[in-house]
């Protein structure tokens, strides 16, 4: 399927949804930055491209929460930065939050207002950290402080596994 067909798919498969309850596909394409790519076919080598399509598809039903499993780990630094920015835009414009799992502490700090530390086997939340509601991007001192807190919490448990992140 091309980009447009991918984004239209949930609406076509859904029963009981009316056109009034489903956002226009063109609006979603614009929101995720895929204008001009509507007829392109996603390639397995373009993770950032596929992620944008998947998020647009998820937004078809105006969700309050979108779950993402370590989606930033295979992205190059430029695509990662672009993805973080468009996720913030979606959060503001669509009032949708993301719940993201990641093993990257920096991603969790830059994307979140709250970080849940989780251990593996059995999965259990072992800590919670609230972050300031302002941008941390230009404040390496604050980022270092929170990074150290997260590392200390995991070290106290003798592990480093997953970090749950919510925007």
List the helices and strands and how they pair.
Elements: H1 3-13, H2 25-31, H3 47-58, E1 65-69, H4 77-94, E2 97-102, H5 105-111, E3 114-119, E4 124-130, H6 140-157, E5 162-166
Parallel strand pairs: 1-2
Antiparallel strand pairs: 2-5, 3-4, 3-5
Helix pairs in contact: 1-2, 1-3, 5-6
Write a short abstract of this structure:
The protein is α+β, with helices and mostly antiparallel strands. Helices cover 44% and strands 17% of the residues.
The DSSP helix count reads: 6
Order of helices and strands: HHHEHEHEEHE
Number of strands: 5
Oligomer classification: single chain
Beta-strand content estimate: 15-25%
Percentage of residues in helical conformation? 40-55%
| Shape type | elongated
Largest sheet entry: 5 strands, mixed
N- to C-terminal distance = 30 Å
Structural class comes to alpha+beta
List low-confidence stretches.
none
Please give the order of strands in the largest beta sheet: 1-2-5-3-4
Quick check: average pLDDT? Answer: 79
Radius of gyration: 17 Å
Question: Key features?
Answer:
167 residues, alpha+beta, five-stranded mixed beta sheet, 44% helix
